[in-house]
Amino acid sequence: MNVKLRVLSTGALFFLGQAAFAQTTKKDSASKVKQIDEVVVLGYSKTATKTKSTAAVTTISAETLENRPNTTFLNSIQGSAPGLSVNSSSGSPGSGKIDIIIRGVGSLNASTDPLYVIDGLTTSATQFRNLNPNDIESLSILKDAQATSIYGNRGANGVIVITTKTGKFNSGVRLSYDAMTSFSTFPKDKYNMSNGPQFLTIKQRLYDEFGQSPNPITNEAIANAPTTNWNKEFFRTGISQQHNLSLQFGGENVSVYSSLGYLENEGIIKGTDFKRFTFRNNIVGKSKDNRFNYSAMVGLGYSKRHQLDQEENSVSLNANGVQNVLFGSLTSDPTLAPYPYLNGKDMFNHIGQSSQKYASYILYDNMIGGVQNLFSETSINSNIKASYKLTDYLTLGNRVGIEFKQSDRNFARSPLGYLSNSVAASSEAQYGGVETISNTKDFTFNNVISLSYNQQFGEHNISLSAYADYLKAHYAFSSSTQNGLEPLFWSLGAGTGYIPFNPATPSLYVPSVSANKVNSGTLAYFATADYDYSGKYGLSATIRRDGSYRFAKENRWETFWSVAGRWNIDKESFMADSKFRMLKLRVSYGTAGNQNLGIASNNFNSIYLRPNNYLDLDKTYRGYGNLVGYYFVPSNPNLQWERQSQANIGLDFNYNSVIEGSVDVYRKLTNRLFNEITVSAASGGLNDDLSPEDYYIDGNNGELENKGVEIGLRGHIFKKEDLKLSVYVNAAYNKNKILSMDYANLTDDNVNAAGGPADQWYLYEYLGVNPDTGEQVFRGANGQATEAPTANDRVFTGKSIYAKWTGGAGIDAEYKGFFASAFFSFQAGGWQYDNLYAWAMNPLYTTIYNNVSSDLLNAWTPDNRNTDIPALSAVNADSNDRSDRYLYKTDFIRLKNVSIGYNFTKKQLGGLPIRSLKLYAQGENLYTWTDWRGYDPEPTNQYSLGVYPNPKTISVGVNVEF
């Protein structure tokens, strides 16, 4: 960490491990007590000691991230900071589907992702797949306006500042090697899917209720029914390994940190995996007189991953049973024998055009090579920083950074796969198969120049800084698709075996190409001011002027600002005999902005979202390629930034180094929400057949409020040389409410409307089962019970997909060389519609060979009236009629991580040329306490169907330092 601080004249700056601390002295009635003050990393490489910071910031250390079996560090920080919500929407190796929310959802139709900063330069989460977590020194979670307003147009959703490791000046050569092997397994569900006899029993009862005679399901068939466990066919124990080698050293004026990393992660679903190579080299230097400081940092990454096709192209896997492994594994016919064919072509020759009965076979064939989906990525993250002290008080600095990522995708339906042969037969073509080769390039240039003034006047300290920030980003995409592959010559990505198209060949062989380019960027000028008096009182202020390509000329620029103050109560004379090492009150208020219209996919940089928004012709994707003759809605040149204001009051404390923590209370208000606004047919309509309500465009409409409380505590129970024990907990409560909205689209089950929370469920109210008929009963709009609800009977449930409570708790213990730790994460107050269980509870699916839940054995009959499960033949039991019957809480407490191990002493290592040796074992996601029936309550997708769950993982590893 390259940190430069001005501290009190009675203090000194030094490094402990890799973290920077300021050592000061505090007088009490007995003696001078030394205390170590942590340095907080803020925006644009600004730093402040913990005692002097006016911002709401939480720091996560390297120890939280190292030696974890996670592809990205984002998976490792769940529950680690109050106000930080981390929900992994996919456990697929290398997936980028991780939802990060800081202090509640801040927008309805724009990006809610925080801004990420690596070593002072902004980046996107799409780069983290190729960032080695072991190269990270610390994370700073910036939460209030004082911390985020310095990033202006991109700071509204909070900021995560990532500092990578550096060497230390005047240190010897240290060589470290880490190795870990992991075993991941598939979590269990609570759907109680039927075995073979149960499946046929339900099917037999269904036929009886519909009066089919003779019943095709006999008692003998039920008694002799086999059972295939399709979970065992589709899933596996994933074996992973990672190796990290790092070298660091430093002289008087230069330090170096270099690392190499390799990760190989085998997915718990067959056919999914991830491999990554990383390299990092960080150099930090200074002149002998300490007036010139510089750093050069570069990180390289290369990765390959096989990923389920539909997971790449949608929020979750859809209900297509021939492509969705997670849906198909549950709903496959349990009486069907395991896949018996050599390949898909062999399968097609045996069964021809398949019925739904063989969906599990098609799914299995896709998984073993019938469908292939390979990604490879190369990424570069590099920056150079230099600063020069023009005088003792004035410093000029400049940082230049580039970020580049190239992503190549090879997708194919193999000519030997079942689907390809089936499509070819339907098209009367000799050869099937299709291959798409696509390439994406993402290049970002960022330059920040600064001028800083810092001077001490007796007990007064003043710091002033001015900055200019220029960012330009370029995106290019190209894709070609070839239909018709010759199986003898075709190989994925090789470009061989293509069937040429000519007028005499079937139209199936027509190739296609597509391409896209986007240029985007921002420009900003801003300044900061900090004042401190005697370490007791402090004031901070920021003002920033931002410009964005996304808006028309009249609305392109916006100004954001913040002010903050602190009172270090423990420095007052009346606290001289107090045991408080720190007692600090913070207050802040400020504004930030959001320019990211729309919500980016998990592998797309949000800066490229509709960059020339006011020029776009088709604003709501209602048109078709913006071609004349198709209905479209016009753009809106009056569109403006989303603007957010936030007030925060916080208290930081440290009592006698035994208990320390912080408490924050905040209110965050987002106005000018990106939303749909209606326009009249006269001004916006092009089709007289549509009503005025059908004409709406993107505009600024509505206000969204977030209010919350955050608390973080750590207690040091024992701090002896041979025995250390500490416990910690953090918790956050957030409640959001849409204060105003002129127009609400109520066509979906999950909606936004004034007076309610963001993304609340809009469903029928389920009352139970009619004991006389076995039909479902709902509450109608008139308050009366009904068995035939209409659209007007749906109600606002007040239940949102977002959890109100989030947090974590843990314990760390050390005894001599032994160490152990346990960490729990939790959330409460969120709701999800379990449409997978709704499918499993529909008995009609047995007629198309889909498995169902054995819970249906308790369905209503004339002899079983006291049940909450409708009759198998109930007319209104269709799972598409969504009610709150399948709306469940996503509350959970998860044993996120457990670690045990032993640190060998130098004496125990004898004459070996080893400085230290650590052996350990750990578990990740070992157990989850939840009422959620599915694999994983964590994802925040609107529906649960087919979400790749986060696996349970056991790891063993070794750390050696030479």
TrEMBL record:
Subcellular location as annotated: Cell outer membrane
Q: What's the protein here called? A: TonB-dependent receptor plug domain-containing protein
Q: Which InterPro entries match?
A: Plug_dom, Plug_dom_sf, TonB-dep_OMP_SusC/RagA, TonB-dep_OMP_SusC/RagA_CS, TonB-dep_rcpt-like
PANTHER family in the record, alphabetically?
Answer: HEMOGLOBIN AND HEMOGLOBIN-HAPTOGLOBIN-BINDING PROTEIN 1-RELATED (PTHR30069:SF29), TONB-DEPENDENT OUTER MEMBRANE RECEPTOR (PTHR30069)
Q: Which GO terms describe its molecular function?
A: siderophore uptake transmembrane transporter activity
Q: Which UniProt keywords apply?
A: Cell outer membrane, Membrane, Signal, Transmembrane, Transmembrane beta strand, Transport
GO biological process terms, alphabetically, are:
siderophore transmembrane transport
NCBIfam families recorded: OMP_RagA_SusC (TIGR04056), SusC_RagA_signa (TIGR04057)
Which residues are in the TonB-dependent receptor plug domain? 50-159
Q: Which family does it belong to?
A: Belongs to the TonB-dependent receptor family.
Q: What does the record say about its membrane topology?
A: Multi-pass membrane protein
Q: Which Pfam families match?
A: Plug
Could you name the domain of life of the organism this protein comes from? Bacteria
Q: A Gene Ontology CC term for this entry?
A: cell outer membrane
Q: Which residues form the signal peptide?
A: 1-22
- Answer yes or no on keyword Membrane: yes
Where does it mainly reside?
membrane
